[in-house]
Amino acid sequence: MAGFRVRRRHRAHELEVHDADLAKWAGRALYAADERMRVAADELGYAEAQLGAGADAMARLGEALIAARKSLSDAFRLNRLNHDVPGTADEVRARNVRIVQLCAWVEDVLDEQISALADEVARARRAPEFIAGMRADTERSHARIAHTRDTIDRLVAHFARAALVEVEHDLAEAAQLLGFAEHSLGVARRRRDDGQPEPADLELEASAAHLSRLREEHAALDTATAMTTARERAAPRAIAPEARVHDAIRHADRLLDAARDAIADHPGWIGAEALTRLAESERIRVDLGHYLGGWDATTTVTHEGDRERVLAMAGRIVSLAGEALSLARRDIDASRHQRIDASRHQRIDLRSAPQPG
C-alpha cells in the first residue's frame, strides 16, 4: 500500500513538471508568434515600397496577417483564462496545448507568405537588369535580320528565287518571333510600371521564351545563308532541279519539326485548329514518303512530273505546318495571358482556411 502511494505521488510530480514545461512552451510560442506578426507587418510595408500596392504576393500576406491576428488573439485569450480563471489542471493543460497549436499555425502561414513575398521582391530587383539584357538581345536580332535580308537581296540577282525559299521563310519566322518577344517585353514593362509585378514576370517569361527560339532561328539562318552563298560562289546560276527538290523536302521537314516541338512543349495549351493543321501536314508527309519510296530528303527524283508533284506536296506541308506553328504560338500566348489573369485575381482566403485543431 505504501508503495502504491509512492507511485501516485511520483506520477503526480511528473505531471506537475510536464504541465509546468507545457506552460513555459505555450509562453514561448506566444512570444515567437507575436514577433513573427511584427516581422510580417514590417515585410509588408517594405515590399509595398519595392513593388507598389498591387502585387498579389502582398495581398496574400495581408490576408495571412488578418487570419493570423485572429488566431493569435484566440491564443492570448486562452492564456489569460489560464491566469485569471484557471479551472482544473486538465483545463489548463488543454488550453496550453491549444495555444501551442494556434501559434504554430500562425508561424507556418506567415513564413510561407513572407517567403513568397521575398521571392517577388528579389525578382523585382533583378527585373530592370533582366529587361535591359533582353532589350539588348532584340536590338542585336534586328541587326542580324537586317544583315540576312541584305544578303538575300544580293543573292536574288544570281539565284533562282526557289533557291532562297527556305532562307526567306526562316527570315520571316525570325522576324515574327522578334515581334512576339518585343510585344511581351513591352507589356512586361507596362505591367511593372503599373505595379503589377506578377503579371509582368509572366510576360517576361514569354519574351525570354521567344528570344530563346529566336536564337535557334538565327543559327538556322546563318547555316542556310552560308550554304546558299557557297552555292552561289561555286555555280552562280539557277539551282539544279534535283537540289531544289531536296531543299524543299528538308525545309518542309524542318518546319514540321518546329510545329511538333511547339505543340509537344505545351501540352494542354494548344487548340483544335493548330492540332488539325499539324495532323494534316503530317499525313501529307507520310504520303510524300510513300511516293518517294522512303523518308529521306536525298531520294533521287529524275522525272520532271514527279519533281513538280513532290514540290507541290512539300509546299503543302510547309503551308500547313506554318499555319500550325502560327496557331500554336497564338494559343500559347493566349494561355499565358490566362495565367496572368488567373494570377492577378487569385486570392487565398485564409480566413476560411481550416484552423488547427
What do these coordinates show?
- 84% of the residues lie in helices and 0% in strands.
- It has 357 residues and is mainly alpha-helical.
- Among the domains are: 2-120, Butyryl-CoA Dehydrogenase, subunit A, domain 3 (Up-down Bundle); 240-347.
- Helix 3 runs antiparallel to helix 4, helix 3 (89-156) runs parallel beside helix 5 (197-234) and helix 6 packs parallel to helix 8.
- It is elongated, with a radius of gyration of 34 Å.
- The chain starts with a helix and ends in a 12-residue tail after the last helix.
- The model is unreliable at 235-239 and 347-352 (pLDDT under 50).
- Residues 336-357 are annotated as: Disordered.
- Residues 336-350 have a biased composition (Basic and acidic residues).
Question: Main traits of this protein?
Answer:
84% helix; mainly alpha; elongated; 8 helices; Butyryl-CoA Dehydrogenase, subunit A, domain 3
Mind sketching the topology for me?
Elements lengths: L1 H50 L4 H29 L4 H68 L8 H29 L3 H38 L6 H24 L7 H21 L11 H42 L12
Helix pairs in contact: 1-2, 1-3, 2-3, 3-4, 3-5, 4-5, 5-8, 6-7, 6-8, 7-8
Please state the average pLDDT score.
76
Instruction: Tell me the strand percentage band.
Output: under 5%
Count helical runs: 8
Q: Which spans of ≥5 residues are poorly predicted at pLDDT below 50?
A: 235-239, 347-352
State the helical fraction.
Answer: over 70%
The rough form would be described as elongated
Class computed from helices, strands and strand pairing: mainly alpha
Which fold does the CATH topology of the domain at 2-120 refer to? Butyryl-CoA Dehydrogenase, subunit A, domain 3
One letter per element, helices H and strands E, the order comes to HHHHHHHH
Largest sheet: none
What is the CA-CA span between the terminal residues?
41 Å
According to DSSP, the number of beta strands is: 0
CATH class of the domain at 2-120: Mainly Alpha
Shape-level CATH architecture of the domain at 2-120 = Up-down Bundle
Radius of gyration from CA coordinates: 34 Å
Region (Disordered): 336-357
Biased composition (Basic and acidic residues): 336-350
